[in-house]
Amino acid sequence: MSKMLKSYFNSFKYFILKYMQILASMRKEKMEKYNADT
Fold first, then answer.
1. CA distance linking residue 7 with residue 13, whole number of Å
2. What angle do CA 23, 26, 27 make, to 5 degrees?
3. Bigger pLDDT: 36 or 12?
4. Nearest to 38 by CA among 27, 23, 30
5. Which of 26, 27, 30, 36 has its CA 20 to 30 Å from the CA of residue 19?
6. What phi and psi values does residue 30 have, to the nearest 5 degrees?
């Protein structure tokens, strides 16, 4: 694999991981709010 492609892939992977973390934390907050309401 070329160096440029490798670094691009690594940053893409990092972006995906960050996105998943944000989604997970948002879902957690929503669930906590929902549980607090009921």
1. 10
2. 85
3. 12
4. 30
5. 36
6. -60, -45
Q: List Cβ neighbours of 38 (8 Å cut-off, separation of 6 or more).
A: none
> DSSP per residue over 10-33, as a string?
HHHHHHHHHHHHHHHHHHHHHHHH
Answer positive or negative: Cα dihedral of 17, 21, 27, 31. positive
Structure tokens at 19: 């996105």
Quote helix, strand, coil % in the chain, to nearest 5. Answer: 90, 0, 10
Average pLDDT for 11-24: 97
Rounded to two decimals, the pTM is 0.58
Q: pLDDT confidence of 38, banded at 50, 70, 90?
A: low
